[in-house]
Amino acid sequence: MTKSVPSYIRLYEEGKLKDRVEKAYDMLKECTVCPHNCRVNRVKGEKGFCKTGEKIKIASFFPHRGEEFPIRGYRGSGTIFISYCNMRCVYCQNYDISQEGDGEEYSPEEIAGIMLYLQEEGCHNINWVTPSHVVPQLLKALYVAVGKGLKIPIVYNTSSYDSIETLKLLDGVVDIYLPDIKYFSNSYGRKYSKVKNYPEITKKTIKEMFRQVGNLKTDENGIAYKGVLIRHLVLPENLSTSREVIDFISSICPDAHINIMSQYRPYYKAYMFRELNRSIDMQEYYFLINYAKRKGLKVVTD
């Protein structure tokens, strides 16, 4: 296969993509789709931590021109903003979507139509934003869409609190992983994102992503077609444990691509935490940019 043909095409042609859909839906019956392992029957409409049953909510979809250049390119990334999340970050800038669940319910068949529309609009890829809790539904939507002509790469845009079992169902399906590493501190994960074992789970997640697709690869125009691009949002007071995050990334892929993000603002409930209730120190931010470069990482900007 050429680099321009997404890997899921072959899975579809071999009948393996349908098998992945069936296995993923089995996980919904006693939900183990993400690390919360709520064990509710989402096929029957029961809801756990993510507040999502079988149907999923979508807040918006459009050709996004605000992502990193390798993702957005010249024609935009076909972004689908999925409502709710399996994390509850107190500083989330999209809290109306991730926490309050703004959006409308869609069936997998309807989501397939959305993906085909975004392809027709000329988008370079389909960008699933916050997909960790709805992988089975997205796989079913993809299966339907491929049968109707979908042929652009899939971007898995996640906060990295993902199940390894679920990620393995995406091996050969997802072309580009866009994980955000929050922090490598269990206490910060519990306090600010309401999840357990975030560092341990995230490290396994990132390693699995690199195992599947490797480092970021771009075409002659600089547009990504495969690989991992890591995001890391710098928080005040070194709450993002940034140097530890950079050291870890360097240890698994010495020339990995990373976007170290400076746009933190005290959104949502951040004002309730003194240490989060300010913007970041830009001097510290530029120190981290230089630190990552000294480690050999490829720093990608917006």
UniProtKB/TrEMBL annotation:
**Origin superkingdom:** Bacteria
Q: Which residues form the Radical SAM core domain?
A: 72-298
* Cofactor(s) demanded: [4Fe-4S] cluster
A Pfam family matched by this chain, by name? Radical_SAM
- Keywords for this protein: Iron, Iron-sulfur, Metal-binding, S-adenosyl-L-methionine
**Per its record, how is this protein called by name?**
Radical SAM protein
What organism does the UniProt record list as the source? Persephonella atlantica
